[in-house]
Amino acid sequence: MSILEKAIQSAQQSEIAFSKFIKPNDTGSTGGHQAGFHLHKNSWPLFFDKEGQKGSNKDHFVTIKWQDDFETSSRFIYYGKEKRNEYRLTRFGRGFPYLTDDNVGDLLVLTKISNDYYEAFVLSSDEDIEDFFASLNISSTETNGIIPKQFEQTAEESLIDCFRNYINSLIVDFPTTLHIALNSRNCYLNAYGITANHIKSNPDKEILKWLEAEYNLFKALENDRYAELIKNPFSSVEELVISANTILNRRKSRAGKSLEHHLEEIFRISELTFQTQATTENNKKPNFLFPNIEAYNNPNFDDGKLILLASKTTCKDRWRQILNEADRIKTKHLFTLQQGISKNQLNEMKQYNVQLVVPKAYLTSFPQEHRDDIMILEQFVKKVHRTQN
Q1: Domain finish residue from 146, 163, 180
Q2: How far apart are CA 52 and CA 48, in angstroms?
Q3: If you compute the radius of gyration of the chain from its CA atoms, what whole number of angstroms results?
Q4: Helix, strand and coil in the chain, % to nearest 5
Q5: What is the DSSP string of 120-177?
């Protein structure tokens, strides 16, 4: 088997593969002091589990087998200190043959076999390089990055497939709102490979993604369940109205609970102690009470460590409903998806000690002079953490 064939096979069968044209910057021909192959920032999944962070260096030592012939003990490194922000592959030993001026323009192919073992190939001839591109279905403009897997579903396609499989598995027409929220979220997380650590770091972004995924799943479910209904004419206006009201009421019911379900998951992943729908004075049931009703009813528990959060999709008029939900807690936090509220209403909320919490992306929809007074979800989670640690 030729080196070209081995390179193609390794790229197709490996966990992840990368290619780049070797440049003067790699071989030192430009006069720079850096040794080794420069790797594009988007290629970090080839050798790390997460991106490098500015302000610190990190590395990963691996064994690389070159041209199916000899091995080197090499080092993937991220330089993040001072003004640097780059990845390199270094340490090849004396007499390494692929970092010379003659190698400029050659194609470097790196493939990950396991966490600590890689294969590498250097293709020199135009014919070999073009055949490699053709076999992997990439162009010369797509080098210096991860090679896409052939016939691999996109994340969006995986998400749609997951929705379809879920709908086909149902034995009821419409499951509970909790069930839809849970399964839409799981489909999204699996399709896009979202981890718990990512959610902890990006709660504002993720909750909007979850809400979008649930909306799309519910829409797909509606289209499936009502496909036959809308094909046939209604026998009377009354029948049409009844059907329309059923559809609208189900939509309202889902939307009303959706936000609460996803916030609950954010708080669970963030390892907060909380209770939902706890009963306070006058039989009121706030959406979230931190840490729980036992602490709230304990007169010796520090009031400063008690936090209430209400969740309302819109709140221009309904924010006043939360004012008497927990008499012991002076400041009432309110998470909303409302985009934009008038200055007068924001001033009134502040007067009544209502602390607005919104997704970070929505902050710019509020008047500039009030933005500093509005919390984002990440800030709220951190505030609760401080009271519980």
Answers
A1: 146
A2: 8
A3: 28
A4: 45, 20, 35
A5: EEEE-SHHHHHHHHHHHT--GGG-SEEPPPTTPPPHHHHHHHHHHHHHHH-SSSS--H
**Same-domain pairing of 141 and 164:** no
Q: How many helices, marked H, and strands, marked E, lie in the chain?
A: 11, 14
Of 251, 269, 287, the domain-final residue: 269
What amino acid is encoded at 268 in this protein? R
pLDDT tens digits for range 129-162: 888 888 887 777 777 888 876 555 667 888 889 9
User: What is the phi/psi pair of residue 372, to 5°?
Assistant: -65, -20
Question: CA nearest 146: which of 14, 2, 9, 5?
Answer: 14
In this structure, are 283 and 229 located in the same domain? no
Q: How many domains does the chain have?
A: 3
pLDDT in tens, 222-248: 888 777 776 777 777 787 777 767 777
- Identify the domain containing residue 222 by its residue range: 155-269
Bridge partners (DSSP) listed for residue 151: none
Same domain membership, residue 123 and residue 24: yes
Distance CA 293, CA 273 (A): 11
Whole-number Cα distances in Å, 386 to 34, 52, 290, 328: 44, 27, 12, 19
